Amino acid sequence: MTMVAMEKGFDTLRYLTQETENGDWLDQVWALLEDSLVWLFVAATIYRLYLCLQPPITSTDLLRSIGFGKEFWKYGLTIYNYPAKYFVGTPYAGLWPYQHFIYPALAMLFFALISKIWPALFFGKLVLTAIEGLNALLISKISGDRLLALLYYISPASLWWVSREGQYEPLLVLFSLTALYLLSRRPQWAYLNLALAIQTKYTPGFLLPYFFRKKTGWRESLFFIVGFIPSILFTLRSEYIFRIFNPSYMPTDCNSYTWNIFDVEKLCGTPFWLVIANA
């Protein structure tokens, strides 16, 4: 009985080895893993859609931003001159009433477009969630690692702050990743996208030394300058520069960058696990 069992074991081992050498077995395992990644992505997307339907609970940023975007169609390039209190009779006039829009030009134009199509919190979060999906695709293209892209897409910080709270960082990431993807392919367009990224928030500016080291020339410089046309137009017509570089306030509550994460009274309803994940 023992010899028969051993022979059967060796036969099984030889079969598996042969299958491995032919690549069929490994291909099947990899295909299963890839299918799992797809299903995880689909599951995360369904959960994100659920979060999009929930109202934000820790921030009024999205409501205010869509509000300013809506007012852009009335005030045009001078929108940076007006704090929220000027928008009498709107649901966002009383939210930080003395605060102007403090984010750069591409953020304003993005929310102006959102408000023109459908000025709703759900739609804003839906668009940002879709952009986050594009970001995951770009990460996969740049790194060649689909698992890394999935981990980005299912990150707790992204799930909460993008699909639940409607923070617009995916727009910044989209332009930044597009710039990185194009840098070795079409460097001029990479510099244009980097300029657009900097006009969503300032942090992509830290990529400049890397870009200068990789590729720079008069064409790249020209495209980079052209990319700042939105900011130039706002500067010519409004207090744009003063507003984006001097926001005139420092949030002390409900902001994980300005308070002790263990000061529970200032969490403003933010789940503690999320604060730790952000940190």
What this model shows, in words?
By secondary structure, the protein is mostly helical. It is 65% helix and 0% strand. It is built from 14 helices and no strands. The protein has helices spanning 2-22, 24-52, 61-75, 105-117, 121-143, 146-153, 156-164, 169-182, 187-198, 208-214, 218-226, 229-237, 240-245, 272-278. Helix 3 (61-75) packs across helix 4, helix 5 packs parallel to helix 8 (169-182) and helix 9 runs parallel beside helix 11 (218-226). The chain is globular. The chain starts with a helix and ends with a helix. The model has no long low-confidence stretch (mean pLDDT 86).
Compute the number of helices. Answer: 14
For the secondary structure, the number of strands is 0
Helix content: 55-70%
Low-confidence stretches: none
Q: Tell me about the biggest sheet?
A: none
Radius of gyration in whole Å, from Cα?
A: 24 Å
How far the N terminus sits from the C terminus, by CA atoms, comes to: 61 Å
Provide the residue-averaged pLDDT. Answer: 86
What is the N-to-C order of secondary-structure elements (H for helix, E for strand)?
A: HHHHHHHHHHHHHH
Strand content: under 5%
> What coarse outline follows from CA principal-axis ratios?
globular
Q: Find the structural class using helix and strand composition.
A: mainly alpha
Quick description:
With 279 residues, the chain is mainly alpha-helical. 65% of the residues lie in helices and 0% in strands. The model has no long low-confidence stretch (mean pLDDT 86).
Give the tags.
279 residues; mainly alpha; 0% strand; globular
